[in-house]
Amino acid sequence: MHELPQQLANGLILGAMYGLIAIGYTMVYGIIQLINFAHGEIFMIGGFGALTVYLWMPAGSNLLAIVPLMIIGGVICSVAISVAAERFAYRPLRTAPRLAPLITAIGLSLALQQAIWKWYPNATKDRPFPQFKGEAFDVFGAHIQRGDLFVLIAAPVCMIALGLFVSKTRSGRGMQATSQDPDTAKLMGINTDRIIVMAFAIGAAFAAVAAVAYGLKNGQIGFKMGFIMGLKAFTAAVLGGIGNIYGAMLGGVVLGVAESLATGYMSDVPGMDLFGGGAWKDVWAFVLLIVVLLLRPQGLLGERVADRA
Amino acid sequence: MRHRSLLILTTVLTTGALTLTACGSRDDDKKGSDTSSGNQTVVIGVDAPLTGDLSALGLGIKNSADLAAKTANKDKTVPGITFEVQPLDDQAQPSVGQQNATKFIDNKKVLGVVGPLNSGVSQSMQKPLNDAGLTQISPANTGTELTQGDNWKTGDKKRPFKTYFRTATTDQIQGAFAAKYLYNNAKIKQVYLIDDQKPYGAGLAASFKATFTGLGGKIAGSDHVNPDDRDFNAVVTKVKKSGAKAVYYGGEYPAGAPLSQQLKDSVQIPLMGGDGMYSADFIKLNKKAQGDIATSVGKPVEELESAKTFIANYKTAGYKDAYEAYGGGTYDATWAIIEAVKAVVAANDGKLPDDSRAKVLEAVSKVSFEGVTGPVSFDEYGDTTNTMMTAYQVDGGKWASKLSEAYKP
Predict the structure, then answer these.
(1) So what's the ipTM on this one?
(2) For domain B39-169+303-378, which architecture applies?
């Protein structure tokens, strides 16, 4: 079991990335009950935004110095696309039956994928992404790569910032009010349209940070990467209790660790040697989701609300 | 409200679908016209992944087939016949490949199909092409069952589709060659086995395992991964624990590259793979590729006398993408169809006969010529008679060839 710390670290890193993306699903759902299936593509566009900034920089620049610029570039692209999607695709459908925006989201997801594929130079195949050079750090018997360190720092920082924003600022409290009851919030003088745009923008910004983490970790990004990551992040949001921002992060980490442990140990369980390993990790992750939802239909940190899925 | 929007949606969808279908048939009509007369056109269908993460290999296939057709037209290899290439994108998906097969069948001018890249896609294309009697030559499929039937392992070899040929050798030969190379030449006796569960990857891993254990090597452990994943750290941790001295990966470079990099982040052992990993993109996407090994079909094109013209012509033609692993094999596959058409036309007073597809099929099984990758001809299963294999190792950001030999089981 001496590689247990390593497997936990692998899961934590993957899970923190899921969690950052899951924030976007959960905030939008919490406020307008829309499952924004295009969010995985917002994540992907953040990665390409960051890559573009990197390619603009003179060759040989210190990566540590330009990572902040890459994050800013990624965030700008993600937020711009996400806010535009809200304005032109979702807002006109706000009073339509709930299925209409859902299908719009799926269509938008395909459209964004194809747009990057078509118009981003050489994006028809995976593009290499810059990575930190140097050896891994040893922490409690686990190897942590330099690129992985990024997400381990970024995820808690983002979460604390978001927590403070939601609980302390005027806009944050307006956001809470809107998610509880949009109509009453409006009567109390809250500009709900602005709050909704804000939710989309924050989710997109977090997705862009996750995309930079993904690139630094895996050394490549591609136009298809948003699909699987988006699906996993959505699962994480449901697992943690959709609508709850801390639940999204917790769900992400639980999902990541579950995947990693299933790969590492499931085949050692007697009688389970056929059902272990990398191919079955998704199955176990979803088994976990089903078990959690059976015992706690509202998710790990979700509140029981009668009219929500 | 709800009903009305549903109605509008359905109307829009139906109209859209009808318009698209209409476009499709008009296209086909145009291609189907102008028969007989002095100059006849023969279309060679090309099916490969032109988009998506395997597109580096796919575009190499498309360009090489195009080059063969252009060369035949320029040299007037078959007098009175102009060759055209119709490339279709299969996105490496079996269902799309099958649709493409139907498109080729509907276009009466298509007398042969070159492709596809993936064995899995081929499985869905074989039957429709076989029913239509349309010749198919793949430059890249290595799945043994494609030519020798599902029971080839038990020695019960039976050719399932008479229209299917290939210029690539089988997984069985490639996996065995890889095992021998690793055991005898690289002196590595303990290997961790990973595959991506696709027909290509799993087949390669299985044949590697059989030969490697037969030689006395030890399989330290095995696992499967999802080819769409890019995070393999959990698997890598298991590899490290197993104490293996190398990893054999049955799969392709898009997942192979991050797998190799994450492997070397934690333990310094090489990753070995088959021709699906032998791509320049593998090194581009993987900063720690140094020392990784791959096997590929045929001799390295760069070292072959017969390939010099191909490489020179490919350069002159100015294609944007490299010919990659299957360029030579594709050129030979396309040329085999051209040779067959030549034989058919020569036997019919310089014109295409009415049953061209059947005649071409018959002629392909008899072709024999010096191609880019060596002598090209097919055995009774439709497999190439050329079993030359090469092992490559990444050295200084390039694939360097280490050993070439004709494999004898």
Answers:
(1) 0.82
(2) 3-Layer(aba) Sandwich (3.40)
